[in-house]
Amino acid sequence: FIEPKLKGKKIIVTAGGTKEAIDPVRYIGNRSSGKMGIAMAQVARDLGADVTLITSVKTELSGVNKIEIQTADELMAALRQEFPQADVLVMAAAVADFKPMTVADQKIKKNPNEDIFTIKLTKNPDILKTIAATKTNQFVVGFAAETQNLLDNAEKKLNSKNADVILANNVAQAGAGFGVDTNKMTLLQKNHTPETWPLMSKVDVAKKFWDFYLQQ
Length: 216
Ligand code: C5P
Fold this sequence. Notes:
Pathway: Cofactor biosynthesis; coenzyme A biosynthesis; CoA from (R)-pantothenate: step 3/5; Cofactor biosynthesis; coenzyme A biosynthesis; CoA from (R)-pantothenate: step 2/5. The chain is α/β, with parallel strands linked by helices.
């Protein structure tokens, strides 16, 4: 028996990498598996929360409201709808920094005379920053996947993105980051010393995070 300590809380979790359309059959994407976000949603559900999972990856997870999205623009639109009523936002999605400037309405054909094909990209909005700037009393959690200067970069994100907490991990480290079932996280919170947790399963990271949240 798990005590439903998050009962009555409306929690939004975003998961997976955005897929930025090039044409009706192709996209630009990234390697995010969505596992960290799905674990966050699963544990919040188990603790009795009302969970909305906004995801670009298919998941069997039951007992949560699922909103499927592909692009950063769709993710932003879904969050604009859901965030005002939420108590917590866990922004685990790997949002593409850029999207194709135009999306072709038909499948782009190969040109036999061209060996180089150029796609012009335009910046996606920073969704976390934009949405968190509208917060009333929501608790906002961002992620930082870094390959170097982990703490410096994560600290900057904490301040620039209006987040209450940043969960940072070094994706260059064995057992941490994309596609694996484990993660080694550092939790950063304003006016607190960063706290580094041991390597553990993503589900255990989620349990540790929700324990931390419940102590706030
Ligand atoms: O800036 P960076 O991509 O490293 O920041 C990571 C955090 O910001 C994650 O929580 C991610 O979901 C969020 N993010 C966002 N919109 C972007 C880029 C990142 O919400 N365009």
